[in-house]
Structures are given as C-alpha cells and as structure tokens.
Specification:
Layout lengths: L1 H14 L3 E4 L16 E6 L24 E6 L9 H5 L1 H20 L13 E6 L8 H11 L4 E4 H11 L10 H11 L3 E2 L4 E2 L1
Parallel strand pairs: 3-4, 4-5
Antiparallel strand pairs: 1-2, 2-3, 6-7
Helix pairs in contact: 1-5, 3-4
Length: 199
C-alpha cells in the first residue's frame, strides 16, 4: 500500500513543479526501517526563491511555491486503523496521530547523512491522513509535531483536491496511471468542479 500512497504524493509534488526522489530506494539502508514508518521522499523546487517567506505549519497547494527543498514522510492509508469515523472526530484523530505517527516521528525524521548531504537544510514535512480541524485538539497536535522537529504537514485531502483541480480532460497522461484515471473520472463527469463531488 505504501507505493500507492507514494505515487499520489509524488504526482502531487511533480505537478507543483518539484523534482522528486525516493530516499534510499537504490541504496542499502544503514538503519532498519520500522513497521509502518512511512515513505521518505526528497523534493526540490528549483523555482522557489531562496528567501521565500516561511509557510504556515499546515501546508496547502498555495504554500508549495515557498517550499524549496524538503524531506517528506508519507503516513497515509497504509495504516489499517484509518477510518472515516477517525477522520471526522478531532479527539479520535488526535489519539490516532499520537499513537501511529507522533510516536514514530523522531525515528522517521532521522535521516542518514549518507543519503542527504545536509539534512538540516531541508524542511521536514509529513503527509497525514488528516489533521484535527477543531481546537484544542488541532493546536495540541501542531505543538506536538513541532516539538519532534516537523516543519509542516499536508493532509491527503489537500493533495487529492489539488490533483483533481490540475488534471485537464483535454490532456493525455499516458505516463501516469493515477493522473490518467483522474482524467477519465472527469471526462465521464464522475467528479464535478468546483465542489469536486465524487459521484
């Protein structure tokens, strides 16, 4: 399932002008990857200014022009515990993120120097199934992520909405099964703009 989540996130960053590379894909890893630790991607945006303003902690597609280079850890749908009920409840989502993501964040964000020249020069971004929308859970969650060294988070809903907006029905996406599938949904009016209602 990791490859599915990785493909979605990779397509998102590439559509937003980033070069994307999976960390350690072809290299021998010095540290053993723990169960469910997520996919690590290195992203670089050559058009982002070096003196870009600091983006908000919760990132949206409009913030991507401010991100120059980042290490992205994908904690997505490979976690079997993610359910619609969890995503709709700020309390349950905070508990889930503490148990499944925050508990592993320190180890997940520790990047081997042999994989990246200067890990401190990169923002550390996590892609999550969701983030609590109501306070105090939202504020608590953001504080806890910042405390373990996370610079920003992106919700999967943000990524999916952006993919739906950017895919054009008049373009062919032969090299991307995911984008081609989104295009087919739009061609057959299965996804309607601007609300992006599915079916």
């Amino acid at each position: 399932m990791e490859s599915f989540d990785e493909n979605i996130v990779r397509e998102y960053f590439e559509l937003n002008g980033f070069f994307v590379r999976q960390l350690g894909k072809h290299a021998v890893r010095k540290r053993k990857k723990t169960e469910g630790s997520g996919v690590e991607l290195l992203v670089y945006n050559p058009s982002a200014p070096a003196d870009a303003p600091e983006p908000n902690f919760q990132l949206f597609s409009s913030d991507m022009s401010s991100v120059r280079q980042a290490i992205v850890v994908v904690h997505g749908w490979q976690h079997a515990g993610v359910t619609p009920a969890i995503l709709k409840s700020p309390v349950r989502l905070l508990e889930f993120l503490k148990k499944e993501t925050l508990s592993q964040a320190d180890q997940t964000l520790r990047i081997d120097d042999s994989l990246v020249e200067d890990p401190e020069a990169y923002q550390k971004i996590m892609v999550l199934p969701g983030l609590p929308t109501a306070d105090p859970q939202r504020s608590m969650c953001i504080e806890q992520f910042k405390a373990v060294g996370v610079d920003g988070v992106i919700a999967f809903s943000t990524i999916l909405e952006d993919l739906l907006r950017q895919v054009e029905v008049n373009h062919s996406y032969q090299k991307s099964e995911l984008l081609q599938f989104v295009r087919v949904l739009k061609v057959y009016d299965m996804v309607q703009a601007p609300q992006m209602n599915l079916f």
